């Protein structure tokens, strides 16, 4: 496990993978990008948790299959509400996998990961994904996320009282976001300004206790709200 200093404006990246060669290759790619820097590395989930506490990254690139503690459990612990509440900086996780539509990737997303990347992604796609996630967005196309979640959810459960307490307009916007529409597309669909839609999305996230738009999609699938 290692750590280096970086400029405050940089996107701070933590690399977690049990293969030294892959980890160092990704480090070279990330460090070559303007505005981002690797601040630490870890070889398993236990090291990842310690490194995240020590280096305060913005984005964690998390391998799924590792010894000691796998990436799913590490993601669950890193993004647990009680741990997140103690952070001054928001933490996002992107899982890395060699398998498309990986069940472990779906589990990590349900625990709060912002999407997944295949390990054979290009350097450009990797850099774009890091920037996208750091900005609070998903790195998985809505249709791919839907297919992934459909494989892992069983019978939906009844929506909680927090969802039932949403206003009609908030539910309308919730559904549009859950179907993968951007703020601009939602604005056109519901005849509101984009800034008003953004305000409503923030209210939905706050009322449902969700982290980001990815979690809206997960919530909708978990409770069968798109059927």
Automatic annotation (TrEMBL):
Gene Ontology MF terms in the entry: DNA binding
InterPro entries (alphabetical): CheY-like_superfamily, NreC/VraR/RcsB-like_REC, Sig_transdc_resp-reg_C-effctor, Sig_transdc_resp-reg_receiver, Tscrpt_reg_LuxR_C, WalR-like
PROSITE patterns hit by this protein: HTH_LUXR_1, HTH_LUXR_2, RESPONSE_REGULATORY
Organism superkingdom: Bacteria
BP GO annotations: phosphorelay signal transduction system; regulation of DNA-templated transcription
Protein name: Response regulator transcription factor
Modified residues (4-aspartylphosphate): 63
Keywords: DNA-binding, Phosphoprotein, Transcription, Transcription regulation
Family annotation (Pfam families): GerE (PF00196), Response_reg (PF00072)
Domain Response regulatory: 12-134
Residues in HTH luxR-type domain copies: 159-224
